[in-house]
Every structure is written in C-alpha cells, then in structure tokens.
Amino acid sequence: MNITTPVKENTMSVSLFLLLLTPLFLFLIIKRFSKSYKNLPPGPRPLPIIGNLHQVGNNPHVSTAILAKKYGPLMSLRLGHKLVIVASSSEAAVEILRTQGRYLSSRHVPDALHVNEQDHTVIWSLECNENWRLLRTICRYDMFSVKALESQSSIREKKLAQLLDFFSSKKGQAVNIPEALFTTAFNTLSSIYFGHDLLDLNDESGTASVLQEKLFIILKNGIKPNLSDFYPILKRFDLQGLRKENLNHLKEVFASWAGIISDRRLAAAAGSQEELCFLDRLIKRGFSNDQINIFAMELFIASTDTTTSTIEWTMAELLRRKEAMIELQQELKQNISTDITKLPYLNACIKEVLRLHPPAPLLLPHRAIQTCEVMNYTIPCGAELLVNAWAIGRDPKLWEDPLSFIPERFLGSDLDFKGEHFEFIPFGAGRRMCPGQPFAIISVQTVVSSLIRQFEWVLPDGQDPLKLDMTAKFGVTLQKEIPLKLILKPSK
Ligand code: HEM
Which residue's CA is the nearest one to ligand 1's atom 24? Predict the structure, then answer.
C-alpha cells in the first residue's frame, strides 16, 4: 500500500494551481471541455471551465431535483470537465439501474478514495470485475444471508443491551442520540468482523472518537468537491491534498486493528480451525492484510452512518407525529414475543423514513463503460450517473402528500426494499444494489423497537416536538443538520 506524507501547506497547492493556469493549460482544458456528444440528455448551459458546478451547490439532491423540473427526468450536467447524467424519475431509474445496468454499473471512485495502487477500492471497485463478484458473494452468503444474520443475533443483542444500559445511566440528561447509535453500529460490525469492540460507549477520554473522526474525515474527503475529479488532467498533482491526507488517516485506522489481524493469523498458522469472527474466514480464503483492511474500512463506512441516520430520523419523525408513536408503542406492547421483522407498523415506519430521508440520496455514483441509449438519449462511455432516489421518493406523481410522514401508506402495500419497485429505492437496485440491506434493516428494527419499548422520549427544555428542526445536511450521508438530543425516562 502506498502511504505517503500529507501535503504541508494549502498555499503551496494554490500557487501550483495558479501556475498551471497558463495559456497552454487553459487551451487543453477548453479543448477537452468542449468535446461534445450528439444527443445528450438536455441540461442547463455550462459555463467555461466550471461547467454547472455553481448550480449544484451543497445540497446536490435538492438542486438537481429543482433543475430536473425544467430539463426533465434525464439531465446532463458538466461538473468541471466531467459529464454527469442525473436520473430523477422512477422510469429513468429503471433504465439506468436495470435495462442498461450491464453498461452503466461501473463506479466512479473519487480520487481521494484511491487508496490502493492495485485495486483502488475493493467493493466499490471501478469495474464489476472478478474481485468485486467474489466480495459480493462473500457478503451475500457469509455476512448477510438469513443464516449469517441469525448467527450474529447474540452480538446484536449484546450491543443493544449495552446501548440501553448507557441510556438508562443518562436518565434525566440530554443525550446526543446519533453519537451513541454510531458507537453501537460500529461495535456491532467490529464484533462480527474482528471479534472485538473498537469503540467505547462510555469513553470520555477522546481516544474512541479519534477513530470515528478519522473514518469521518476519510469519507468527507471522498465527497468533497475535488479538482482532481473535475479535471482528471490534474489528478497526479492532488492539488487539495485530499488523497494524501486520506492515505495518512487510513494508515492510522488500519494500525488500530493490526494487532487483531496478526493474532488471528498466528492462530491460523498454529492450525486453529476455529472461526471466532469473519476475519478468520477471510484469512482462510487467503486474503492479504491490505484486502482485509480495505474491506473492513468499506463496510464500516457503508454501514455505520447509514444505519445511524435512519434510526435518528425515525425517532425524530415519530416524536413529531404523536399518533404514529402511540400506534407503534401499542404494536410493540401487544406483540412482545412476535418476531420484530413481522411487525407491520414498525416496518411501515422504517420504510416511510427511508422514503423521506434516504441516507444515500443520489445512491453512489455509477459510470458508463459503454456508450448506450437511455430514453432515446445517448449516454457516452465514461459518463458518471447519479440516480436521485430522494427526488423519486418525494415525487407527487408517485406519492400522495409526499412531504408528510405517513407510515400508513405502506400498510398492506407490497413495496419493499429489494430494488424491484423503482418508486422506492433507498438501497439502489440492480447489480450495484446495497449488499448490506438485510443487515441494515434488522439493525434498525432491533434498535428502534427497543428504544420505543423501553423508554419515553422527551425533547430537552420542554421543546415542542412540532417545532423540531428537521433540516437535512448532505454530507457523508443525508443527516439531520442538528443532531437529535433527547432526554429519556423509563416507560410507565
Ligand atoms: C439504512 C442503511 C443503508 C442504506 C440506505 C444503504 C444504501 C446503499 C446504497 C444506495 C448503495 C449504492 C447502490 C448503487 O450505487 O446503486 C449502497 C452500496 C453499498 N452498501 Fe449500503 N446501505 C445501507 C447499509 C449498509 C450496510 C449495513 C452495509 C454493510 C454492512 C452496506 C454495504 C454496502 C456496500 C459494500 C455497498 C457497495 C456495493 C457495490 O458497489 O457493489 N450498506 N448502499
């Protein structure tokens, strides 16, 4: 793995950038930029050099949904030199994710996440290659199959009990809900993967949050607007230093679990056949340390913020709609021994939250590996594709009263998370659909049902739930801008 030192000064990057803006450089950019394709989907007129960057802004799911009203459900944008096609209707999503999925399921991996010289990243790999297929198969059978999920149930129970104890110990105090949920989600996965907790719910020394912080920065750098992505000609200079910064953070993240990997390797070398955790299985399959590290990092990044924000939004929406909270409390009270996966109202609430607040509102960027036709327009090879699942979930042609939280709309409906109904695709659909969906749903069901069953929730300082700020922030995931803080009292 190529780990190098961080860039020292931002100013250095800026002066290098200015130096590069020589006439020759401008000529090259404009020449490449003006490369035009016939029959592209319509879109706003791009400005020289920056294209439509100024129209996308900090909330791309919102700005592209607004632009789509004018330019249509399949729209072209130029982000710097990059051609981006945005799908904003369920029909356009079917075409991209299913009909032409064979050509449009490659990935665009942001330069800041190019952390491995050979493989780049593993599951998010550039192509749907053999390596990617093997990892998806491992995920499907060894990590997220019904059998695997059952065998992980004791870990989930244990982590849940720790979370409930933690909340009980904070009775009467305002608790930062997403922070505690994040630690629980992280430790659940780390116990399955490494057989150990990596964070401590009660840690106030700050060491636990260092690891969390580093993972957060790595992802944040991955989604930050980066000159290397908009102008590939600049890639090698890494002008903003994001790739280098990430490589350093990764080095430290990997060091935090290196001892666990070497212990399990020693046990395997001594002839142990015991499988204490997922890591043992990967060692048996001949995975290198680099592969183990990157696979772990990807799963942590993909799973922790997404499940945390889903639970946080669920609690916030339930607090705001009192009748829904009462309905759910009653369902949970009346069905103490029923399997939570079978509780209709609980599941309707989770679906409704994922419709309104999909953690990955634009899914993950796809890339065309072959030129093809979508809705009678040309999608050129190399174009990046975004599917606006957020806009589709709020499309008034598909949903009645789309902005309101109404779990009842899912009762008796056959809409599920499996990527077969394109009006509801919080986990994507087709080849690149989220492999962690079964794991995510069982985690959310387990935590939400227990938090509602065990506690009564109140906002601090007698705040009116109807006035709860529900502003979302596009970042690592679509999170609540102001983290939910609640005071818990035990249920009567
Ligand atoms: C509520 C929780 C979650 C949501 C809403 C979610 C959503 C998504 C979405 C939209 C994608 C991209 C689909 C596409 O590009 O077409 C994705 C990819 C992925 N997710 Fe999830 N996810 C969640 C939880 C998880 C969990 C718990 C894991 C693993 C433990 C996971 C692992 C992955 C991986 C590895 C990919 C990349 C798949 C590939 O590129 O082939 N996700 N997820």
Answer: 303
- Ligand 1 atom 7, closest CA: 427
Best mutation site among 134, 427, 448, 477 for ligand 1 pocket (most ligand atoms within 8 Å of CB): 427
Structure tokens at 235: 């890639």
Q: Which two tokens stand for residue 46?
A: 């791009």
Q: Which atom of ligand 1 is nearest to the CA of 358?
A: 5
Which of 20-34, 424-438, 447-461 is predicted least confidently? Answer: 20-34
**From the CA of 205, how far away is ligand 1's center (Å)?**
32
Per-residue model confidence as pLDDT tens digits over 366-387: 999 999 999 999 999 999 999 9
Would you say 165 and 287 are in contact if contact means Cβ atoms under 8 Å apart? no
Residue 290 has pLDDT above 70, yes or no: yes
Closest of 200, 218, 227 to residue 296, by C-alpha: 218
Atom in ligand 1 nearest the alpha carbon of residue 128? 41
Q: What was the pLDDT predicted at 124?
A: 67
Q: What is the CATH number of the domain that holds 73?
A: 1.10.630.10
According to the per-residue pLDDT averaged within each range, which of 112-126, 227-241, 333-347 is highest? 333-347
**Spatial distance between the Cα atoms of 309 and 262, rounded to a whole number of angstroms:** 33
Question: How confident is the model over 402-407, as a mean pLDDT?
Answer: 98
The domain tally of the chain equals 1
How many residues would you count in the chain?
Answer: 492
In the reported structure, the alpha carbon of residue 244 is separated from the centroid of ligand 1 by a whole-number distance in angstroms of 26
Q: Which residues line ligand 1 (CB under 6 A)?
A: 123-124, 136, 298-299, 302-303, 306-307, 310, 358-360, 363-364, 426-428, 432-436, 439-440
Residue whose C-alpha is closest to residue 484's, from 300, 323, 308: 308
What DSSP line would sit under 122-178, residue for residue?
STT-SS--HHHHHHHHHIIIIISSHHHHHHTHHHHHHHHHHHHHHHHHTTTSEEEHH
Instruction: Please indicate, yes or no, if residue 207 is contained in any of the structural domains.
Output: yes
Q: Is 468 part of any domain? A: yes
Residue 24: inside a domain, yes or no? no
Least Cα distance to 302 among 166, 176, 448, 135 occurs for 135
As a whole-number percent, the residues of the chain with pLDDT over 90 amount to 68
- 354, 407 contact by CB (below 8 A): no
Domain that holds residue 187: 32-490
Q: Which of 434, 444, 445 gets mutated to test ligand 1 (max ligand atoms within 8 A of its CB)?
A: 434
Assess if residue 65 is contained within a domain: yes
Q: Is 61 in contact with 478 (CB distance < 8 Å)?
A: yes
Residue-level pLDDT at 36? 55
Q: Which helix (H) or strand (E) holds 187?
A: helix 177-193
Q: Are strands 82-87 and 384-387 parallel, antiparallel or unpaired?
A: parallel
